[in-house]
């Protein structure tokens, strides 16, 4: 070890450290060896191997023959002789033993004991759990020492006049016999105070009189109700795009009928009204609009005026409207169908109507599963927004099997009654989603079937996709070329209405429910390959189809 320092003082310190680290232990070792070994130094010099052997024997502890033999024997597992439970007062011992996996007669495992402690702590009845192990001739005795949490012996409410005790205790959510801790008591106080605010007691305050200290065994809540506050009037400040009357139709915070019935000030409803007004302005393109309600309570403390302070901000315009993912129609054709154009103010209602128009446009051509999503994108320029319609056309489908399910106690309506109202939806035709809705509307208005929307019992027309087992047998449909790339003198049959790119169909089901239907019927239609062979005028034959065929020209059934 070499230490070089520039200053003489550091050299002295380094030399001292060297002597203390290396020289002193060597001297002490030599003195110790000479004390316990009465061998002369000359003998160590003559036999260096003996010196090394003696040093090794002193550093390693030796074992006698019995200890060596005992260490080679296999360790026998320890058995649990008994399990004791102490410290529990309100919790029965049987409930504690139900959480334990350490049982008398089983092999003792420290990991299982730790799992028992964890399960007991998770019950919430104990503040601490300790374990004690004691060896006996019969085995090990495990003792679980329990320190219970204080339990709720009673729940009381003081100071309430307008609301009964039983109602407030139910709203607090606490019950006698549960664990008592500060969190439970404070949560009960908060729930009772919130309940008072919802009932119109705007100035109500609830405090904890008992239950927040270790020595307490119950919960006592002190209530200061104050006066019940009712709505006297509702005003708006800062609104320009909409009148006060229009905004009052959006909110629920209003004066009561004749100032006697309803009209209580509810903080929860007031917060919901703030969200409703904000959503209303966002739907009109005011994306930076803010709404803040303010209360002006009268001197009597019984009546309040709610003032909604509105800051509308700029109204956003559409800088561009674009379409992506479309192949069946051109951009110009889609833009001509939509309501919002470039330069118009953004409107959520118009955007949703445009999405529905585009969905009907694709649905009328057999693209019943077309997915159209509107994506408004904000720009760096304030007051401008881009609107992008993401279109996923999907596959084009024809009408396959038409299965009619009529349920009821004694169904006697013929299937032809349902099929006669199908309109232009006949097997082999391209599915038109608008015709599907019209068919369903005609079935509801026929008054032949149960139509109870509140119970979920209505005539329903459901379109089902092909089964997975039939998908490999269906040829992939070629993608049609955009119309602007097709010559005007050339007609493409795969994009003409009434023609399908491939002669395959998906099942088409009709579900009709008679009076007395309890559960919806099951649907068992399967997709079939469409190969109509016109054996006679007005009669259709489909491979795999069953049941009567329908003549759309004569309205007859065979």
Task: Describe, in plain words, how this protein is organized in 3D.
With 558 residues, this protein is α/β, with parallel strands linked by helices. It has five domains: 80-148, Ubiquitin-like (UB roll) (Roll), CATH 3.10.20; 155-224, membrane protein fhac (Ubiquitin-like (UB roll), Roll), CATH 3.10.20; 230-311, membrane protein fhac (Ubiquitin-like (UB roll)), CATH 3.10.20.310; 317-392, Roll (Ubiquitin-like (UB roll)); 399-513, Ubiquitin-like (UB roll), CATH 3.10.20. It contains 14 helices and 15 strands. The protein has helices spanning 8-36, 41-46, 48-59, 65-72, 93-97, 110-122, 165-172, 182-198, 244-248, 267-283, 331-337, 348-363, 415-419, 433-445, and strands at residues 80-86, 126-136, 139-148, 155-158, 205-210, 219-224, 230-237, 290-297, 303-311, 317-324, 371-378, 384-392, 399-407, 460-463, 506-513. The protein has a three-stranded mixed β-sheet with strand order 1-3-2. Strands 4-6-5 form a three-stranded mixed β-sheet, covered by helices on one side. It has a three-stranded mixed β-sheet with strand order 7-9-8. Strand 5 (205-210) and strand 6 form a beta hairpin. Helix 7 (165-172) packs across helix 8. The protein is extended. The N and C termini lie far apart (112 Å).
List the uncertain runs. Answer: 1-13, 31-46, 48-63, 66-71, 472-558
CATH homolog superfamily of the largest domain: membrane protein fhac
* Strand line-up of the largest beta sheet: 1-3-2
Level-2 CATH architecture of the largest domain: Roll
